[in-house]
Amino acid sequence: MKGYWKYFLNKLGWFVITFIFAFVLNFTLPRLMPGDPVAAIVSRLAQGMSNATGVQAIYQQYAELFGTNRPMHEQFFIYVRNVFRGDFGFSFSQYPRPVAEVLGASIWWTIALQFPAILVGWIIGNTLGALAAYLKGGFDKVLMPVSIFVSNFPPFGMAVILLAVFGVTLKWFPIAGGYGFDLIPSFSWNFIWSVFVHYQLPFWSIVLIAIGGQAIGMRSMAIYELNADYVKFSRFMGIKDRKIIGYVFRNAMLPQITGLALSIGTMVGGALVAEIVFSYPGLGYTLMNGVMGQDYPLISAATLIITIMVLTANFVIEILYGIIDPRIKAAQSEQ
Amino acid sequence: MKHTLRQVFRSGKFLFGFSIFVGLLLIVIIYPLLVPDDPLRIIGQGTFFPPGIYVNTYDSVNAATKYTLNLPEADVRRIESRLKQEDRLAMREWLTAAGIPESEIDIEDTERLLTLWNNNFDPKKSIPGMTNARRNYFIRLNNALKGLATSGDLILASKQAESGTLEETGIIKDTDYVNVSEVANVRVLVLGTDNFGRDMLTELVTATRVSLQIGFVAGLIATLIGLTLGLLAGYVGGLVDDIIMFFTNLFTVIPGFVLLILISYSIGQEQRGAFTVATVIGFTSWVWTTRAVRAQVVSLRNRDHVNLSKLSGHSIPHIILHDILPYIASYVVMALILQISSGILAEAGLSILGLGPKTTEVPTLGLMMRWAMIYQAHIQGNWWAYLPVLVTIALITFSMNLMNTGLDQVFNPALRD
Predict the structure, then answer these.
(1) CA-CA distance, A273 to B350, in Å (whole number)?
(2) Count of A–B CB contacts within 8 Å?
(3) What's the pTM value of the predicted model, to 2 decimals?
(4) Which CATH number belongs to the domain containing residue A143 in this structure?
(5) Among residues B19, B49, B84, B27, which one has the least CA distance to residue B189?
(6) Cβ separation B373–A14 shorter than 8 A
(7) B35-60 confidence digits (pLDDT tens)
(8) Is residue B245 less than 8 Å (CB to CB) from chain A?
């Protein structure tokens, strides 16, 4: 157990370092660009908003909140303090709502949509890939080209096609939003059913994309493992086929878990764009509205939250990986 | 080298992907020579004209020769095309209400529907439960249907310049035809027009070219950075390796998409040309190449031929160029292909978010997708505005990944099945 503790601390250290680095990037990147972002914001505000007092109020509040007139390092500490208080300022495009409120409303939609979808896609994809490697023949011949094609499809493309087929043509599912536009969020059957129905298309579009990529990866891992020496040795030993396959797929599964940890950032990015297609009230859609409304505080906070989500997911996967993979436990306890 | 190439081209997967890709390239190169239009010129007044052949009405009325064809089915067809779906549904509603069994009514079969209607419709018949307004609607519908059936000649008239009176210049009978090849202005819009009224096909071809260029520039930048860093980290090792790997590990976890959003937004809409976007994509996606190259170089570093080269007193650049690069060339090419296809996807994703290249210069596949989404082509069922774009993107990435899989099987014999 001591070995695992070490592994955990190591990963935790990396998590903290990456987090700080991402945080600094989130702060500096917009400020590194030619031109002062605040000056740009003011000029944009002048043409964008009709509410003159609102403009004035935001600008003053913004300048005060982020200390834009002060030197860079002071600005940074003001930024850190604000973020830890959960204070991201007011949203430009949805004034007078604070950014924290706008994002607080959308983040749960994204979490509830993406993580189950990625997980389900990962499980189905791996099962199919393992089956393809084991059964070979016709199943493999059909599954592989389909998987390759599907995984090369852009996530938003899958979303558009599902929407056009099942939403617009067949009218099985609603085409936009997270729940019926005539409903008020509440704990009624009506509302829950509406959320459930609206959930289906975005969910399956993400799942389908994930299945393709995972199936391909799992198949080649499993083929590699099936040809490994220990499999032949176990066969000579007379161990039952069923048991050998258990070993093989457990071994093939492990790199797939690391693969999930590494690709989760890309997947979330793709799924965010898929959200836009469905006008799903999550972070992706909010981000697009932020871009359209030239809403700098909203974009900055949204990207920070997406980064935190991805980093945390990554961290959790690596922690679980340490528990599952016997080799890591062995390596750690030897030291 | 020659042997490797021959081997690569013998791989079925590679060849298949390669032919799709070359096909796309040829279209992109040849089409603009045949149709040298400006892809962003607005030709249609209105949004989303469906694909088809557009014949100029003015020119066909004034065509030099008129032909008379007596086709028996012309009348029925004419009515068929004018009878709207809602009228058909209304006719069915009245007929079922009047007691005609539903199995006899087929609203797709215009001829039968009309006979059924003419035989049964009686304006005086009162149907229980029908309001007066509705009854009047059916009477109006009946009159309109009569108007459809009676086909009189149309008179062409022109206004006289001095008096302003109309003067008859010709008569058009319902049996008059023109030969399409004799009409001066016929425009074939293979994929219709988009929301701005631009020719979709011309726009799509240009967009494919620009997107390929973006992908290529992004891929090249990412591969160059990745190759340099990977070589440095792998070959030099030590502190350099530690530092490079530290940053590589950081950027593996920090989602590149987020960095792309931040940078693109900070650059601002005005400064974002296609080339800038490509550069930004390149600078945010070098991580995977670095990792792959480093891993390869580390395993090569202590091979005998490299040690021999070191002993012979060759300089580091010489060793890298002659003893290391040839061994990792295949990986680098594969990484480049992957980077190109993911660069094209990244551009599309950015454009949908509204952070793509500025919209006034050139179309890209992502921008076309964004326009289709914003003008709700997918909800209105205007498939020609988004499906060809999606298919093109899918074909590009699919062909590149096939090439990659093919190359992988040639260079890693263990993967061959």
Answers:
(1) 8
(2) 138
(3) 0.84
(4) 1.10.3720.10
(5) B49
(6) no
(7) 888 888 888 888 889 999 999 988 88
(8) no
Q: Would you call B259 an interface residue with chain A, using a CB distance cutoff of 8 Å?
A: yes
> Among the ranges B7-16, B323-332, B385-394, which has the highest mean pLDDT value?
B385-394
B354: nearest CB among A224, A291, A306: A291
**What's the average model confidence in pLDDT over A10-38?**
78
What the block records as the tokens of B405 is 């899989």
The secondary element (H helix, E strand) that includes residue B398 is helix B387-411
Contacts of B403 in chain A (CB under 8 A): none
Query: What is the average pLDDT score of chain A?
Result: 80
Same domain, B291 and B383: yes
Q: How many domains does chain B have?
A: 3
**For residue A258, is it within any domain?**
yes
**Measured CA distances, B306 to B105, B292, B326 (Å):** 85, 19, 12
Cis ω before A155 (30° cut-off from 0): no
Residue A221 structure tokens: 């891992």
> How many domains, in total, are found in chain A?
1
- Domain containing A255 equals 102-292
Q: What is the CATH classification number for the domain harbouring B21?
A: 1.10.3720.10
* Cβ neighbourhood burial of B121 (10 Å; 0-12, 13-18, 19+): middle
Whether residue B168 is predicted with pLDDT greater than 80 in this model: the reply is: yes
Q: Is residue B50 part of a domain?
A: no
Beta bridge partners of B155: B171
How many Å apart are CA A281 and CA A177, to the nearest integer? 6
Which tokens go with B147? 């108007």
Which positions ≥6 away from A239 have C-beta within 8 Å? Answer: none
B52 lies in some domain:
no
User: Nearest CA of chain A to the CA of B281: how many Å?
Assistant: 13
Closest residue by Cα to residue A85 from A296, A285, A301: A301
Are residues B275 and B383 located together in one domain of the fold?
A: yes
Whether B265 contacts A37, CB under 8 Å? no
pLDDT tens-digit map of A65-119: 656 667 777 778 877 888 888 787 777 777 678 888 888 888 888 888 888 998 9
Q: B108 pLDDT exceeds 80?
A: no
Q: Are residues B236 and B281 in the same domain?
A: yes
**Chain A CA closest to residue B257:** A269
pLDDT of residue A2: 67
Nearest to A306 among B255, B369, B378 (CB): B255
Q: Does residue A265 sit within a domain?
A: yes
Q: Are residues B274 and B346 in the same domain?
A: yes
* Strand pairing category for B67-68 and B186-189: unpaired
CB-count burial class (<10 Å; 0-12, 13-18, 19+) for B123:
exposed
Q: Is residue A200 domain-resident?
A: yes
How many alpha carbons fall within 13 Å on the CB side of residue B167? Answer: 7
B120: domain range? 74-146
* C-alpha distance from A129 to closest chain B C-alpha (Å): 15
SS3 call for B208: helix
Chain A interface includes B308 (CB < 8 A) = no
CB–CB contact B394 A307 (8 Å): no
Residues B100 and B23 occupy one common structural domain: no
CA dist B168 and B66 (Å) reads 17
CB contact under 8 A, A156 and B349: yes
Residue from A168, A280, A291 to probe the interface with B (highest B Cβ count within 10 Å): A291
Q: Report the amino acid identity of residue A92.
A: F
Task: Assign B30 a pLDDT band (cuts: 50, 70, 90).
Answer: very high
Query: Cβ of B379 and A175 within 8 Å?
Result: yes
* Nearest CB to B255; choose among A14, A168, A310: A310
- pLDDT bin (cut points 50, 70, 90) of residue A335 is very low
Q: What is the pLDDT of residue A256?
A: 84
Residue A74 belongs to a domain:
no
- How confident is the model over B336-358, as pLDDT tens digits? 998 999 899 999 989 988 888 88
